[in-house]
Design brief:
InterPro entries: P-loop_NTPase. The radius of gyration is 22 Å and the shape is globular. It has a seven-stranded mixed sheet with strand order 12-13-11-14-15-17-16, covered by helices on one side. Strands 1-2-3-4-5 form a five-stranded mixed sheet. The N and C termini lie far apart (51 Å). The chain is α/β, with parallel strands linked by helices and 436 residues long. The chain is built from 13 helices and 17 strands. It folds into two domains: 212 residues, no CATH class; 203 residues, Rossmann fold, CATH 3.40.50. α2 runs parallel beside α5, α4 packs parallel to α5 and α8 runs antiparallel to α9. A hairpin with a 5-residue loop joins β16 and β17.
């Protein structure tokens, strides 16, 4: 290993240089300040092929790609599923594919301040884009950036894989863009280029303009999904996320399980190679710490204002102690940031333990739905309706990580439409934003 720090390692091989990102010990998440305090060494990525891989955020990938491009190198991104044998690069691209369906670009001049371009991505994790499609999206964004003067700032945000963030950052630097900012739902504004910290902060006028483009005009709702481990909670949170998108809401899924997250690549890979998926996921598991709780709470506080609906996959607690701790001490601050809760429970059990846990922190009044999970490996189905006490209740089948997501979404979508209409209602009723 030629160069190693705690947040990255660099290995130089005969035909390529490999940058590998690593989770932060004990807390998983690195702060953006590492880009300045412990920078990637420019001399080790100078020229040639640079491979970027590992457990890094989109702003880490964008930073490494921008640095590589500035030093005359070419970038390749390798994700865990690619290394495990999952490769969508050779899949065919349909004739109807249009790269401009996956992003929007807003541009504005701010007087003496150089021009600003906001690139907002809208690329859903499933089904994943092929390598060819990703290249077409990056190329199309690059065509838009060519219209900007060299002294410009590109703000990059939205839902998209690390390959797209890296590709756009590389193209932007190659075209002479002077500043690149990633606007992360977890970390806020992260300056990924230039690397020396010399870039001035964005003005308040610029930030107000960006917020006007990104934040919902009528407020947002943070919807937390709670339940005991292995009840189908994470699968349901993903289904809710995709159903919300299909219902034309600007949505995002926030995985707040810092100990054992359920990333999209794991669920996609599990459908094809369950053993490899489990092995890779186990390597990423770490224990809970107080600092992790604080980081997740801070991240959720940032993310909750950027979307019509933010789906939060909340931790299942510690049921191995007596009595069980569904909301362990200190975690209530994370739960306090959630506007509404859905309780998922096994159909042979009861939702009452979670009702009691939320009630201990005066959160039970925020419960809007309770869903019994049954027969996870059977055909997907959902019954769901509002009861007399304004709580939605239902029964879901097929909430297994091995079930193809599209099957679940297709089955649940129409049933959930009335729920979205009430949850995101702008005047009164459960799920409105009036009591925030």
């Amino acid at each position: 290993m030629d160069h190693e720090t705690r947040w990255f390692s660099i290995q130089q091989k005969s035909n390529e240089t490999v940058i590998t990102f690593h989770p932060k010990p004990d807390v998983r998440f690195w702060p953006p300040s590492v880009l300045r305090e412990n920078p990637l060494p420019r001399n080790l990525v100078r020229g040639g092929k640079v491979v970027i891989t590992g457990a890094g955020s989109v702003w880490m990938y964008a930073h490494a790609a921008a640095l590589t491009a500035a030093e005359g190198g070419c970038v390749e991104v390798r994700k865990p599923q690619d290394q495990a044998g999952r490769n969508v690069g050779d899949a065919s691209t349909p004739p109807s594919f249009s790269p401009r369906d996956f992003f929007t670009v807003h541009h504005r001049e701010f007087g003496d301040e150089h021009s600003i371009a906001l690139v907002k991505l809208d690329i859903r994790p499933s089904p994943p884009l092929t390598k060819t499609e990703i290249s077409k999206v990056v190329e199309a964004v690059g065509d838009e950036l060519k219209r900007l003067p060299g002294e410009s700032t590109v703000c990059l945000t939205g839902s998209g894989p690390v390959e797209v963030y890296a590709g756009i950052a590389s193209v932007a630097v190659s075209q002479g863009i002077s500043r690149i900012v990633c606007i992360s739902p977890r970390d806020g504004y992260v300056f990924v280029w230039p690397p020396d910290g010399a870039a001035p902060k964005l003005t308040s006028e610029t930030i107000d303009w960006i917020h006007g483009l990104l934040r919902p005009k009528q407020g947002s709702v943070t919807l937390g999904v709670v339940g005991d481990p292995n009840c189908g909670k994470s699968v349901l949170s993903r289904a809710l996320y995709y159903c919300a998108i299909r219902a034309s809401y600007w949505a995002w899924r926030f995985d707040s399980d810092g100990q054992s997250p359920t990333p999209e690549w794991y669920l996609l890979l599990r459908q094809e190679s369950p053993e490899q998926a489990e092995q890779l996921r186990k390597l990423q598991k770490i224990g809970w710490t107080n600092e992790m709780e604080e980081i997740l709470t801070r991240q959720l506080a940032i993310a909750r204002d950027y979307f019509d609906v933010l789906i939060v996959d909340l931790p299942g607690g510690n049921l191995k102690v007596s009595p069980p701790q569904r909301i362990p001490p200190g975690r209530e601050e994370l739960f306090q940031l959630v506007d509404r809760f859905i309780i998922v429970y096994q159909d042979h059990g009861l939702p009452q333990p979670w009702i009691d846990a939320l009630q201990q922190h005066r959160l039970a009044e925020r419960i809007v739905a309770m869903i019994a999970s049954a027969n996870p490996r059977e055909q997907t189905s959902l019954t769901f309706s509002k009861t007399g006490n304004n709580i939605w209740e239902g029964r879901a089948t097929g909430l297994d990580r091995g079930v193809e997501l599209n099957h679940i979404v297709n089955s649940y979508h129409n049933t959930l439409l009335p729920f979205w209409n009430i949850l995101l209602a702008r005047q009164g009723g459960p799920g409105s934003n009036q009591d925030r």
